Amino acid sequence: MKTYNVKYRDFKTLQLYVNSNDIMKYNNILVQVFSGICNKEFINEVIRNLKLLIPQCKIVGATSSGEILNGDIFERECIISISVFEKTIIKSILVKDNISDFSKGVKIANCLISTDTKAIISFGDSSIMGEELLNGINSVNDHVLVAGGIAGKSDPAYETYVFTEEGVEKNAVAAVALKGEFLNVNNGSSFNCIPIGKEHEITLVEDNIVKKIGTISVKEFYNKYLGTNNNDQILRMGNKFPLMVKRNNRYFSAHILKFINAEEALISTKLDIGEKIRIGFGDLREILQSAKEMYSEITRCPCESLLIYSCDSRKNIFKKVNAKEIIPFKDLSVGGFYTFGEFNNVNNKNMFYTETMTVLVLSEDVNARIKIISEIDDEYSYFNEEDSALYNLIKNTGEELNQLNIKLEEKIKEKTDELEKQYYTDKLTGLENRNKLINDLCVEKYTKLTIIDIRSFNDINDFYGNTIGDKVLKDISKLISCYCNENKLNSYRVNSDIFAIASSDIAKEEFIARIQFLQNEINNQCFVYEEGKIFLTIVMGVALEEELLFEKAEMALNYAKKNKELFQIYREDLNIYEGIKENIIWTKKIKDAIAENRIVPFFQPIVNNSLKTIEKCEALIRMIDENGKVISPYFFLDIAKKAGLYKELTIIMLEKTFEVLNKTNYEISINLLLQDIMNSEIRALIIKKLKKVRNPEKIVFEIVESEGIENFNEVTEFIKEVKKYGSKIAIDDFGTGYSNFNYLMKLNVDYIKIDGSIIKNVHKDKSAEIVTKTIVLFAKELGIETIAEFVSEEEIYNKIKDLNVDYSQGYYFSEPKENIG
């Protein structure tokens, strides 16, 4: 084989060249056309003339930003490279279909590659994404070497084209395949830009348009590192300072083709979000040295023909100093062109590169070799030792800094991973925690979830102590974890004595069967600690293939606990969600009522049974709705407690009741829960009000009777403090729950209010009568007065008078009213 390279002038000069070299005698002829004249009519003329002169030839070509002929570079010329083969078959294709670039590559490979196909030479116009095209070819066959590149142009106003003997096209790919048992194909490449500085991450990209590097735009990035925000300067400097990305352990460059707007840039190579880039530096001396090394390698390959496909940026770099890295070819017949991105085969992998000079080496004679002159050293001797030293300084310090930065990032990642593990791991049990469960649910990792509660676990802590309680939690977590590992389940400790089990890999019925088996195992097991035997009971709430999986499993658990069940699967007909919606509605109503001053005290009179006169009243909380309707605390008080609004209601009632106290001679009682007494803010407010009110002896604090009241030192201290001002104390709802006569003697109370559940039956239930009589007798002995609540009819009133109850309160006398008297 042999390649003839000639500058095209016209039909006659081409005819003379073809005839003088006796080209027509060959049957297998490949003609490559590299046209710096980006005119479609001109290119069509060239193709017509070639088909007339060499009708048997296959043609492939592209417009160029510069043309290579032997050892010289041209612009706006047309170079024709004619390769004649004796034993190689040539097949061409022009893909102009409206399909993706990847699909174009697939079509080229399917049409051109067969047994003994050794190489493909392909050109795409500037609209083609070279990387996608190569990916398409490689997806069919990644063993055939691909050479060529993307069409260029020497003036921004020009169009780019590719063509074969079939015609000239835009938005297309032209390609030829070389097939032959005796064809030897090799390639060489020269790059040698060096990465400098630290790695940066691509954070926002769309197609080939890079929008963000790290936290800043492309323009800000170049302004920061190259000291200019002028777009034209950035484009020019991009040739010498390209972006460099590392793939397959090899750096290659990407440069800006143009700015899309003020901040975003079209890049020659597709970069992905998350890829790391560094700024590159192209040093002329080192680039030439790299070229020299490539030439040395070529001389060892079978070679009868050389074709060069080199990046436009290299032409621009050397053009400034009138330098030509292709000088060693000046005595050889070599053709090629400058591209907007070139195809290169490195380590038997076809990849899309920029900033690179690639050389395709062809030969049908395994023994053929070429001799390349060594003038490259003499031609550019003005690159002195200082240049070399500066290059090495930049290269080595840059690499050292980058390695230091990588090590630092590794340390940061190691620490971050450690902190993340701590954030997602329960310290006591080693199980993954609530944070991890919520995160896993957010990414829809699971479709089935059960939440597990250890019933009455606080009793274990209270009775055995926290040390034993922690041992119980560790042992049960080990049991749950081991079981889950064996049964394709995932376990978590949500908090305290709450665990969770999740899965998405097994059917619903199997999931239920497995967690119920675990529940039976735990509920039937005896845990022994320091000779004490502990039996646990766990309750499970389950949600299956639901939205809001965690919330609904929690609803099912609460429903089970409320209804004293051990196992409950969430269902819509449980109406759990309706209750929650109702709570949300009422919470908003309470907040609005607080904000709009619609929480008010109503007053219910308390009658002296001996004198039949009203001497006292009780302040009772009411809400006035938007329409003026009075709302009983039955509808909102419990919800206020759960919503954390109860303290605000207590403060409002205290403020407004003390205001009324200054305007009346009635004794007024106001209810306090233990949580009110134990709240320092509430206690401080009460003392402040007692100091300012003109008749503090007229206020009575009704403490709601509750379990364990005698254990609260705060209560006795509170009573002592308010009694300094003459205020009185009543125990409300006495006679139910955990009534204890003993603490009455300790608390120094003034009134006992007998619970309405006893009083409402006192006239017809002997037990209620006896309880009432007992309370009254005990109170009389201690000098404590009694008040009967819920006196709703005359018969009850008469009965409590007979039992010597001192006061009565109820609807028989009056319902609670807005005003006293």
From TrEMBL:
Residues 394-421 form a coiled coil. Keywords: Coiled coil. InterPro entries: Cyclic-di-GMP_PDE-like (IPR050706), EAL_dom (IPR001633), EAL_sf (IPR035919), FIST_C (IPR019494), FIST_domain_N (IPR013702), GGDEF_dom (IPR000160), Nucleotide_cyclase (IPR029787), Rev_trsase/Diguanyl_cyclase (IPR043128). It comes from the Bacteria. Transmembrane segments: none annotated. Residues 445-572 form the GGDEF domain. SUPFAM superfamilies: EAL domain-like (SSF141868), Nucleotide cyclase (SSF55073). Residues 583-821 form the EAL domain. Gene3D superfamilies: 3.30.70.270, EAL domain. GO terms for molecular function: cyclic-guanylate-specific phosphodiesterase activity. PANTHER family: CYCLIC DI-GMP PHOSPHODIESTERASE PDEF, OXYGEN SENSOR PROTEIN DOSP. This is Sensor domain-containing phosphodiesterase. It comes from Clostridium beijerinckii (Clostridium MP).
